[in-house]
């Protein structure tokens, strides 16, 4: 039949295919696990041992190893999101991204598949670190582990979507790393992972209060180590803020990808 139109695929199949592709690529690059989990774990051991004798959280009595542990999980998720978004630049260079853009697949499905695939990997790698939680004096039940998984979902979506937004705009791996060092790393440093807001100067404390990652970290603290959550926002407020931030970051990624390709 002449002039036959190509049927446009649905949303879920392309999105699920791209999501699964992210997981397969990760499985084939197992060295990413060592880089993503090993580096934050090394930071946790070195910082925890180095600052342990001098750090105090007040009447809560939490050790620095315990205090720093939720921040280490957050760092694992951050590293995982950076590594997963490098594939956006690689796909552009190798021509895969262009082939997807000219296909009947919608750009919304492209963004959702890439972001959710990266977020799934980030959350799973964050959960892997729970295996060493007893070394920090943290004991948790299966129910608490489930709560951590639920909290890691919006955190992972937030960081992965934000990374996707910048990866879509830059043309080189070096440029992407530069942007991440200027954006994501300061967000982590100002989340309260290394030091509590009570010990920060007024300017830094103000930045920590408006940092959405501070609320994601606070939620992890309430579940894993309530002793280290003294003075932190409530669990309900923390989950609400990080979820809102995740939706906003996802919307920014969708909007950026919807722009005409030049």
Fill in the keyword field for this structure.
single chain, 262 residues, mainly alpha, 10 helices, disordered N terminus
Folded structure, characterized:
- The relative contact order is 0.14.
- α3 packs across α9 (212-224) and α9 (212-224) packs across α10 (235-257).
- It is built from 10 helices and no strands.
- Helices cover 71% and strands 0% of the residues.
- By secondary structure, the protein is an all-alpha fold.
- It has one domain (12-257).
- The chain has helices spanning 12-28, 31-51, 64-94, 96-101, 107-128, 142-169, 173-189, 202-210, 212-224, 235-257.
Number of strands: 0
Structural class: mainly alpha
The biggest beta sheet reads: none
Total domain modules: 1
Q: For the CA atoms, what is the radius of gyration?
A: 20 Å
Question: How would the global form be characterised?
Answer: globular
Helix content: over 70%
Termini Cα gap: 34 Å
Low-confidence stretches at least 5 residues in length (pLDDT < 50)?
1-7
Estimated share of beta-strand residues: under 5%
Give the overall average pLDDT: 82
Query: Total number of helical segments?
Result: 10
N-to-C SSE series?
HHHHHHHHHH
Put the structure in a nutshell:
This protein has 262 residues and is an all-alpha fold. The protein has ten helices and no strands.
């Amino acid at each position: 039949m002449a002039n036959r139109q190509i049927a446009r695929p649905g949303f879920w199949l392309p999105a699920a295919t791209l999501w699964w592709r992210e997981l397969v690529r990760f499985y084939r690059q197992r060295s990413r696990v060592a880089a993503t989990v090993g580096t934050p774990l090394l930071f946790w051991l070195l910082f925890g041992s180095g600052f342990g004798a001098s750090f105090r959280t007040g009447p809560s009595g939490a050790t620095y190893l315990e205090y720093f542990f939720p921040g280490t999980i957050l760092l694992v998720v951050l590293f995982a999101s950076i590594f997963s978004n490098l594939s956006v630049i690689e796909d552009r260079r190798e021509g895969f991204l262009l082939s997807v853009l000219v296909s009947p697949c919608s750009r919304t499905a492209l963004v959702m598949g890439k972001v959710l695939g990266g977020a799934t990997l980030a959350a799973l790698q964050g959960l892997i670190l729970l295996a060493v939680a007893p070394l920090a004096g943290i004991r948790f039940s299966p129910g608490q582990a489930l709560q951590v998984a639920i909290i890691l979902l919006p955190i992972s979506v937030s960081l992965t979507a934000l990374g996707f937004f910048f990866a879509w705009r830059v043309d080189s791996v070096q440029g992407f790393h530069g942007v991440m060092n200027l954006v994501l790393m300061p967000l982590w440093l100002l989340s309260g992972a290394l030091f509590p807001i009570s010990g920060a100067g007024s300017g830094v404390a103000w930045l920590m209060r408006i940092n959405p990652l501070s609320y994601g970290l606070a939620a992890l603290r309430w579940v894993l180590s309530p002793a280290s959550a003294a003075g932190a926002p409530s669990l309900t407020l923390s989950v609400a803020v990080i979820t809102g931030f995740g939706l906003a970051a996802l919307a920014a990624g969708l909007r950026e990808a919807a722009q005409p390709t030049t």
